[in-house]
Every structure is written in C-alpha cells, then in structure tokens.
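Incident review: delayed structure delivery

Summary: a single-chain prediction request sat in the queue longer than the usual turnaround. Root cause was a stuck worker, restarted by the on-call engineer. No data loss occurred. The affected request and its eventual output are reproduced below so the record is complete for anyone auditing the incident later.

Affected input:
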Amino acid sequence: MPRPCKQRRICAMPSCGRFGPRDTQSAAQPPVVMTLDEFETIRLIDLEGMTQEQCAQRMDVARTTVQAIYGSARTKLAECLVQGRELEIAGGDYILCDGSDSRCGCSSRCHHSCIQQTHP
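Output delivered after worker restart:
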C-alpha cells in the first residue's frame, strides 16, 4: 500500500490565479492547471533563489519530492508558453503557513487567509 501524500507547506498564495494569452483562439484548449505546491516551488527556487534542499526544508518535504514537483511545474509553464495555453493556479494538498513555525522563515511575508486546505 502506498504512503499517503504528505501535505506541503506553502507560504504565499498567488496574487493572480489565471494567466494566459489575450486572444480568444486559445480558449478552445483547456487551461493547464498548476497546483499551489508547484507554484510554491517556482516561487522559492526561481524567484527567491533557493536551492532544492532549502525549498524542501521550507515546504517540509524531501528534496526528491521538491525535485519532482519543480519538474512538473516547469513542464506546465513550458506548455503554456510554447502552446499559448492559459495557466490556472489552484488545488493541491497543502498547509498554508501561519508564520508561527520558526523553520519556515517567512513570518510577516506570508500571505494567507486560512491555515489548512486540501483541494482536488
């Protein structure tokens, strides 16, 4: 029996949940859905400049898990850019940081409206 999926800690919600081309031709294709934990790896590694190991510590998961999540997120970004598809950021199995965990290090930079979420 496989292990249950461990909830990933995220520290920032996206300021915008949908991105995409302005033309209406791309509306014929369904949007690419990026989960919030995938968004968090992009934010931490590419924007904050963290290593995968640092990202794993922040999200409270194994480095290999971060590597897989990050790879999936980059593939989804490439699909959107190359194929002109819309990107939707939603869902995933995560815990939203409340800034009280000293391991997190985000404290006042957290953007949260709730503590725990599980979405399909």
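Verification: The two ends are 21 Å apart (CA to CA).
Action items: add queue-age alerting; document worker restart procedure.
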